[in-house]
Specification:
The protein is mainly β and 667 residues long. Helix content is 8%, strand content 40%. It contains six helices and 49 strands. Strands 2-1-5-10-7-8 form a six-stranded antiparallel beta sheet. Strands 3-4-13-6-9 form a five-stranded antiparallel beta sheet, covered by helices on one side. Strand 11 and strand 12 form a beta hairpin. The protein is elongated. The relative contact order is 0.07.
Length: 667
């Protein structure tokens, strides 16, 4: 079974500094084909004690030193598998047998990140049982690479590979090394094993491989569960046993077949060198691919408003590089402003940005890495907001970017850079269109924004008597119920007989004759024009007809009639109204006050008394020409009467109420 607590073992692995000699380091790097950018720092060898139960004593290591670093150069075949690169690789051997259980060896490489550390590896362990394994760490943290033995037969005849790792391409393992400085714990000091110095010290990362020896074994237990004896299974190949003819009970064919396998296949592979194949790990083809510097703009077209913050896409901070920039058209030098990713590049006028990569404060990166792009700075427009005040007026406020000047108009003309400066707030009580723009020194004026202050849509007011709609607001019983509705987002207020305005929540009872005025209100709008309805109670009787001449008369009916009154009128006279849908006159079933009707009077000065009728108020004629029979002479108007041949003016003293006339209203 695995008996290591990995985090603790790693600390032990990194606990003692173990420097190789310079010649040892050179030999190991040469065996790995001298990878560029990779330095070997050293290795450690640690031995742990195993108690009588086969458990690791992780409190007290027996030995922790570099006296036996165990890393050696191996040329030629790496035990039946040719090294991937060149003619050599490096190898570590922790020994064979149970006496070597609980040992580990580490090897640490150094690179200047970020980048990708790649390698081939091979291990001899017998993974059919719990066995040896290898783990990689970056600056003391697991790097996501851990492998046990690949060869379940224990013969060591496998390829260089990572067992059961489907996403590994061509048996090549890669570890991504992060960029930026290595985190240092101020209380415990540098968490890395080796102390680094120099300009790039904080960017130098350690990649450590730790090979653990975990010798598998079988155990027998007594009746009390105490282990009695251990039978270890060695890593690597086991010496084959030559077939014994006495074991085959005279079956010579089977004996000869097994003997042939023993002579031709097994025995040639077993020799002293191959026996040492167990308990080993090999590394080869180590390469370091540093991350290339990048420098670019976030957007292809750089447009900002007022004061633009232009960010760059770069990994300079991770590489310990520097970026210098200019906004005056010159090529950046080491004396130009230094780019900071947290601040970006502040630009207040349209210009061209040049940004250039430097390896340090004085040395440009080679080959030259520089980018350039024009930046357009525009003036942002103001933001206009309308708020309705308690008195019904609308307060218009304007906000703009700091340093911008707001200019505006309310006369329907678009503002310019010389228009009036915004006074603060505008209080409006009539429908008005406010237009505004912003100006900024050195920049063109912004686009124009508009805010139209209008009135709310008027409410819809409905009159009902006993639940039945009464379009003429005339009631014959107790009174009318007045209901009002408005567009979504609006609220309603009403007043009775020019009294105090109050919120409208539900239908209002008209009671006796009275006038109700309803307004719609919505924030950001002026209140709507009031919708005024006058409720009237019908009189008991009403006469119609005095002054009518025999024959046809065109009369504006000044009455609100009940159904009985309409029937009574039809009995005495012929009554016709014009039907727009058919384009002809026909007998009506409903008559409204102010409606123009044709009456045929059979005799001179005929009169008719109608029950439940009321004198109505003639509708105010629209501006222009109207054909009406008014009850009173409308203001601001002139009248004409048809004399049989043409229309002639009617003197005010000669005006007869109810007489069909042509009326011209001037305003």
């Amino acid at each position: 079974m695995l008996r290591f607590l990995l985090s603790f073992v790693l600390l032990l692995a990194l606990a003692v500094r173990a420097d190789f000699s310079n010649s040892d380091k050179r030999n190991l790097l040469t065996a790995l084909d001298s990878p560029q950018g990779v330095t070997i720092l050293g290795g450690k060898y640690t031995v742990f004690n195993i108690d009588q139960y086969g458990n690791l004593d992780d409190e007290n290591p027996i030995k922790s030193s570099s006296e036996q670093n165990k890393w050696t150069v191996q040329k030629g075949e790496a035990w039946k598998t040719t090294p991937i690169v060149g003619d050599s690789c490096i190898r570590s051997n922790l020994g064979v047998g149970k006496d070597y259980d609980g040992r580990q060896i580490s090897l640490t490489f150094q690179v200047t990140g970020p980048g990708v550390f790649s390698f081939y590896y091979k291990t001899s362990t017998y993974s059919a049982y719990f066995s040896d394994y290898i783990i990689a760490y970056i600056d003391g943290e697991e790097a996501g690479f851990q492998a046990e033995g690949y060869d379940e037969e224990g013969t060591g005849n496998g390829d260089w590979q990572l067992k059961e790792e489907e996403d590994v391409s061509e048996n090549f393992i890669s570890i991504v090394v992060p960029g930026g400085p290595v985190t240092i714990n101020e209380e415990e000091g540098d968490p890395r094993e080796y102390l680094h110095t120099g300009e790039d010290a904080l960017w130098q990362h350690e990649i450590t491989f730790v090979f653990y020896k975990d010798e598998p074994y079988y155990e027998d237990y007594d009746d009390n569960g105490k282990p009695i004896g251990s039978s270890y299974v060695p890593d690597g190949p086991v010496k084959p046993i030559k077939p014994d003819k006495d074991d085959y009970d005279g079956d010579l064919d089977a004996y000869n077949e097994d003997l042939n396998v023993y002579n031709e296949e097994e025995l040639p592979y077993y020799n002293t060198a191959l026996a040492n194949f167990g308990n080993c790990v090999w590394l080869d083809g180590v390469t370091w691919t540093p991350e290339e510097p990048t420098l670019d703009f976030v957007e292809e077209e750089l447009v900002a408003y007022d004061e633009g913050i232009i960010p760059l896409v770069t990994n300079a901070d991770e590489l310990n590089f520097q970026v210098h920039y200019t906004t005056n058209g010159t090529i950046p030098t080491e004396n130009s402003p230094l780019y900071n990713s947290e601040d970006g590049i502040l630009v207040t006028r349209s210009c061209v940005i040049h940004a250039k990569m430097f390896r340090n404060s004085t040395t440009p990166y080679e080959p030259e890495l520089m980018i350039s792009a024009p930046v357009t700075i525009l003036t942002s427009p103001p933001e206009l907001t309308a708020t309705t005040q308690e008195d019904g007026s609308v307060l218009v406020t304007a906000n703009a970017y700091e340093g911008n000047t707001i200019r505006y108009t309310t006369n329907g003309k678009a503002p310019t850079a010389t228009s009036s400066v915004w006074p603060g707030d505008l209080s409006l009580s009539e429908p008005t269109t406010v237009q505004a723009l912003c100006t900024r020194p050195g920049l063109s004026a912004s686009e124009v924004v508009s805010l139209e202050v209008t009135r709310c849509a008027p409410p819809v007011v409905t009159c009902l008597e006993n639940g039945v709609v009464e379009p003429n607001a005339v009631f014959t019983g107790e009174g009318l119920s007045i209901e009002a509705s408005a567009e979504e987002g609006s609220t309603l207020r009403y007043s009775l007989n020019s009294g105090v305005s109050q919120p409208y929540f539900e239908a209002v009872s008209a009671g006796d004759s009275q006038t109700i005025a309803v307004q719609a209100i919505q924030d950001g709008f002026l209140p709507s024009e009031p919708v005024v309805v006058t409720a009237r109670k019908a009189t008991a009787t009403q006469e119609i007809g005095p002054g009518l001449k025999p024959g046809w008369n065109l009369v504006e009916l000044p009455l609100a009639l009940t159904a009985a009154s309409i029937a009574r009128l039809g009995e005495d006279w012929a009554v016709y109204t014009f039907d727009n849908s058919t384009g002809c006159y026909q007998k009506p079933s409903v008559l409204y006050p102010g409606e123009v009707v044709l009456l045929f009077v059979p005799k001179e000065a005929a009169t008719t008394t109608l029950l439940g009728a009321e004198v109505g108020i003639s509708p105010v004629p629209e501006r222009g020409w109207n054909l009406l029979a008014p009850l009173v002479k409308p203001a601001n108007s002139t009248l004409w009467r048809w004399n049989g041949n043409t229309f002639e003016p009617v003197a005010p003293s000669d005006f007869t109420p109810g007489e069909p006339l042509l009326i011209y209203r001037s305003r």
